[in-house]
Design brief:
Elements: H1 3-29, H2 31-58, H3 63-73, H4 75-86, H5 93-122, H6 126-148
């Protein structure tokens, strides 16, 4: 088995930990924010997990081992949610949310920008770049509209 498979599992566990932090902290704010955050993370995670599964297969894992290992990384999300709930201040959820949501949001923005912007800058076809930017703006618009309802 290649080391890239194990590194991917470690990165996925950390990613899931931050997702757990974000979901738990969002539900501490309100049900609406919690559901919106959960839906956004689910929409991100479905293709992400499929890609990670493919990485594990290429790294030499068989299908059953790759599936079990992918499932085990989900424990990171549970640990993140538990950490967010245990870190809740005696003064109330506001103290906890005051640092967890900006921390996780900043992390997600950093990862997105590190992955997306270099690809956009290397794209030779302006039409493809425009499509990607329009889709990015569409995603932001959908999130803004959902937050208003």
């Amino acid at each position: 088995l290649q080391i890239s498979g194990y590194l991917n599992l470690l990165a996925n566990t950390i990613d899931n930990f931050t997702h757990g932090l974000a979901v738990a902290a969002s539900f501490l704010v309100s049900r609406k924010v919690g559901f919106l955050t959960t839906m956004a993370i689910l929409l991100h995670e479905i293709p992400h997990e499929v890609g990670d599964f493919a990485i594990l297969l290429r790294a030499g894992f068989d299908r059953w081992s790759a599936a079990k290992m992918q499932l085990s990384t989900a424990l990171g999300g549970i640990l993140g949610a538990c950490f967010a709930m245990c870190a809740q201040s005696p003064k109330g959820a506001g103290e906890t949310v005051a640092w967890i949501l900006p921390f996780t949001s900043g992390g997600f923005l950093y990862i997105a920008l590190v992955n997306v912007v270099p690809d956009l800058l290397e794209e030779k076809n302006p039409w493809n770049s425009l499509q990607q930017i329009l889709l990015l703006c569409t995603g932001i618009t959908v999130m803004v509209l959902l937050s208003l309802t």
